[in-house]
Design brief:
By secondary structure, the chain is mainly β. It has one helix at about 55-65, and strands at about 5-10, 15-20, 20-30, 30-35, 50. Strand 3 and strand 4 (about 30-35) form a beta hairpin. The radius of gyration is 12 Å and the shape is globular. The model has no long low-confidence stretch (mean pLDDT about 85).
């Protein structure tokens, strides 16, 4: 089973994310965004979640260091 991490979205909802699905994590002035490696067929945008956690907090959860 792949590793799961819990993150809090900007709206306060908690999500469990399968780390095998993460394609990229980025941080800007408005927060941290996790982009997922899978997309829905014919979708124009990549699926993502914006989190309250910082880039460093997410990195610690994913890598454990």
């Amino acid at each position: 089973m792949a590793k799961m991490i819990e993150v809090t979205a900007c709206d306060g909802k908690k999500w469990l994310i399968n780390t095998a699905w993460i394609e990229m994590i980025s941080e800007d002035d408005s927060g941290t965004t996790i982009y997922f490696a899978f997309v829905i067929p014919n979708a124009e945008e990549q699926d993502y979640i914006r989190t309250k956690e910082s880039y460093e907090e997410i990195k610690m959860k994913v890598w454990g260091c």
